[in-house]
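User: Sequence for Bacterial alpha-L-rhamnosidase 6 hairpin glycosidase domain below. Tokens please.
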Amino acid sequence: MRSIGVAVLLTSALGAVCLADNLDKYGVFGPKKIALGSTPSMDGQSFSSGFTLSTEEPLATLDYDYEVAGLPYFLVSSVSNGPVEIELKYAEQFPALSLNYSDGPSQFTTSIANSRRVETHRFTEDEIGATITSVLSQPGQRWQSLRLLTGDSITFETVGLQASVEVIDDLTNLPGKFSSSNANSSEENGTYGLWPGTRPGISYRTWNLTDYVLTFESQIIRGGAGYTIAYDLTGNRDGVQIHLSSEYPSDTTFSNINTTLFPANTVTLAYGYDFVNATSVTSYILGQYDVPFNVKENVWYPVEIRVNATAGNIVFSIDGKQVFDIILTEMGFTDDQLSFYGYASRGEGAIGFGGWQDQASYVRNVTATSLSDSSKVLYSTPMTDESVVVPEFGGQSNAHGVCMDGAKRDRYIWLGDFYHTTRIMGVANSKPEQIAGTWEFLFEYQADYGQFSGFAPISYQSPMPLPEVFLNDAGKVDAYYNFPDYVILGMIGLVSYMDYFDDDAFVKAHWEEFTRAMTWLIGNQGSNRLIDLTKYVVVFLGPGAGMAVNAAAVQCLDGMAVVAWAIGDLESANSWLQVAASVKTAINELLWNDTLGNYAVDVSTPEVYGVSATAFALTSGVANETQIKLIVDGLEGLRQGPGYLDSSDTDITAHISPNTNGFLLDALLQHGYTDQAVFLFDNLWDAMISNENFRSGASWEYVAQSLY
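Assistant: Structure tokens for Bacterial alpha-L-rhamnosidase 6 hairpin glycosidase domain:
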């Protein structure tokens, strides 16, 4: 989004003609291989110079060899029978190039990068010799395809990405070194880098809108405009999506426009993150409604959205003409379908503005007034000041260096994943500023009572003036964050950070924040001496008062005691060691099952054991040598083709989690169980890095037992 005097321009992968700049910051990424043909192909030849797309060979597949990120750029040397339209796709994994939306859209978070993984560019003779760039960068991919849509041919002198992350063509130049007798485990087969990600911007200032009338002016520049209401900012959950289509004039409309999803002169209504599904994120089309006139481009229209959240009623009007009047509960979908982490909006929540693939629009003079009292203004912004709009709607550039676990999708810091990534950073690129910067974001969103956010945004205003609005049940005395166990994992990550970098100065400067988090954690110890995080609803490691949570808590308490000792806070060190000892005793009294020969995942399920529980029993020191042998032997009951099931009551056909198996791998190696560790290396990790379709990056949250 950028200021243009009267309004802010909202774009979604709008192809634009502009001079490439800022090349000296990181440089460029260029493709390593190219394949020409009619379909995507992995059988590429070395890329050395330009190439031509024609009706005989309309598609080029570019292979960057590893994960890259940046602003796409193009230099055209000839155009035949123009204008020539080119459809571009970007993907982490090769098979996505054959999908309609590639491996997108990436709708989980907002940023300055492109949430769409497909975009279109139109080239004429006027662009010959000029460097053409996309408006928005692509956040992470190995693969790129260019398909000729219109015209006879086009010759590209060069293509690539103006890098938004550090360019390292030779991974052996990284500070960290790793060697292995197994060629598939070498460091060159991994991924690296820090990336941004995006979706239509959501205003954090509107987090609690309910029963209101929203008015604004909207101008479509190309294709359509998108409006989001009823978004649950506090839990980053869903919303009501409204899309207005123009009449699609021929001079601005691309040939590949999706008129099935968005017919001309219509309003499309959806519930969820978007209008199409993405990985683990489902959306529902609720209806399509005709606008009673042709919607012109480059014309300002007044828009009104009336929201009665009490009744679940939404009324949409444009230019004084009502387009729909619906009740969410009568749209044919159940609460179970529409809920995300147990929540389904009835219209209450935040608002936002954006668009679909290849679209651009303006919005200005946004006002929300009370539904029952039009004189009561709930929210207002002219949308003309970039310095205000961009950080409010989540399009801010990174205020700090940051370490993230996802390339193309995440603009959130998942604190639990910091357990893994802190150590990876320590042995790979050795950039402590990215780890410290990650914590700087987390400090901004720390709750008053001490809990860190399990997933903290990085693209909103920084410092964040209203961190409390991001908590679940914000505004209530018992507001909380989900993923409380991520705080435990994150603090273990801090212990690793100190092991690798010995950064006393950073820890001392933020000791108050860290000790508040530890005080919060200890405050969750119950009368049975177990830590109980159940009230925080969503717990990743398993039951909130279960084995994995408590063993990890022991590891956290013991580790943070060492950190406290290192900076001279002996009182905290001794206190945390005492709590750790009491939790350890409770674990062995309440969760060890002699008959099972294993730790139960929870007191209520004494016969069930699991991977995370086993892993943290080993790494925390909770288990003695006899117990360790028994629980490692028990892993055979969880073993499937590529790895270990999360627990003994998991469906045996379920996908395998590299995350939880990663906890286990660390634990096995620490205790010398190399046979089990080699099994994971040769199967689960090998499945991710040896297949050329996926090895540079993919949706590795889970791996199917078929290894696809």
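The chain is about 25% helix and 25% strand.
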